[in-house]
Predict the structure of 3-oxo-tetronate kinase.
Amino acid sequence: MTILLGSIADDYTGASDLANTLTKNGLRTVQTVGIPDPSLPLPDVDAVVVSLKIRSVAAQEAVAAAGTAERWLRGRGAMHVLYKICSTFDSTDQGNIGPVTEALAEAAGGGTVLVTPAFPETGRTVYLGHLFVNGQPLDESPLKDHPLNPMHDANLVRVMASQSRGAIGLIDLPAVAGGPDAVKARLDALRAEGAGAAIADAVFESDLETLGEVALRTPVSIGASGLGLGLARALVRSGRVPSTVNTTADAIRPVGGHAAVIAGSCSSATLRQIAIAEQAMPVLRLDPERLLTAASDEISAALSWAGERMEAGPIVIAASTTPEAVSDLQSRYGREISGRAIEAATSAIAAELVARGVRRLVVAGGETSGATVDMLGIPAFLIGPEIAPGVPMLRTIGNSQGEMLVTLKSGNFGGDDFFATALAMMR
Ligand SMILES: Nc1ncnc2c1ncn2[C@@H]1O[C@H](COP(=O)(O)OP(=O)(O)O)[C@@H](O)[C@H]1O
Ligand SMILES: O=C(O)[C@H](O)C(=O)COP(=O)(O)O
């Protein structure tokens, strides 16, 4: 398998988000979970998105994992590697976007790396280096309350600089509006000044097409699905993509079996989606404190609840709760310990539900998805049709339970009726 574009995603929902965008823009794409075993039968594709769970880990762990993935992608012919970060720039104060960016740049021979999380289709825009979420500055948006990576500064040049050894520059909107040559000139000027990376403004898809055109001339870039859109369209325009046939058809064959939603995201969007789902299907709200103090009992109780209901139709099991309740739990048990313990519990519940016949599974939350997919041992996914902007249906490849339809929903994505919409498509 020789590929054109490689990507390393710092969480699993972000990986499927990007894979959706690349597919929609003409690239045959597959999503892997880590580096796949050489024996895994992967389809002939133009792009591979390697899912990693490194958004909230220690910087050196993220750098090491990303470096291994980058070498694997280059070994399969990737001429460009995109480090897929969150469109809301989610990262801990200690990193990891800066350290991974510097390591990938060094591996690629240096230079100033283009960075933009803009994804206008989902309301993420960047202006004068400041990130806006549906018109709100990042630090005034719901992302300020993220359980693991609360975002307190919308100025991405400052945020990136705080995580980086080198200087961080800005490619402002007037430069982007000037087209690829103007952006290239600005990037060259920043490189001459010794900048390690440059935050690029983007408000419209046309800005992303410009940035994708320039990024593709370099070996590495950093961004969210918006930059993926620009890279994909630049590749198709270059004539290097053998076919732009939509390949999601392979992924939608019905699988039958029971259906379940596992929610760990505490985003405002997911909380709304759970509330709407409650009007149409059984919803169990787990006791987060018992998941920390009596996990096996709470898991057993949840599985008994599920066993009485999942024959009749889809069920929802959620740990998700309000920012206030999250903060209260974290104040008593710690942010990291709470998050990982709840991920472990929700993934254990998911795995047992699959053992009892669930083959159509929706997971809400990036870290929650990572824990669940790892617990199930799923090595890769075919990309199916889009359910909502940034959220495709996926079909498993090579997992021991047999083929499943899976949706890994980014916490902030999807409309209020997302769960019913997804389950109606996942037959
Ligand atoms: N009730 C809760 N209290 C504290 N943390 C929680 C609760 N429910 C879920 N979590 C944790 O919050 C984090 C949510 O992160 P993630 O799954 O990535 O969602 P998102 O996609 O919204 O970022 C996970 O670590 C999860 O275990
Ligand atoms: O918002 C994005 O770019 C991606 O969909 C993503 O990274 C989502 O991460 P989350 O943890 O599921 O919010």
Q: What stands out?
A: Residues 267 and 282 are 20 Å apart (CA to CA). The chain has two domains: 5-238, 249-425. The domain at 5-238 is CATH 3.40.50.10840 (Rossmann fold).
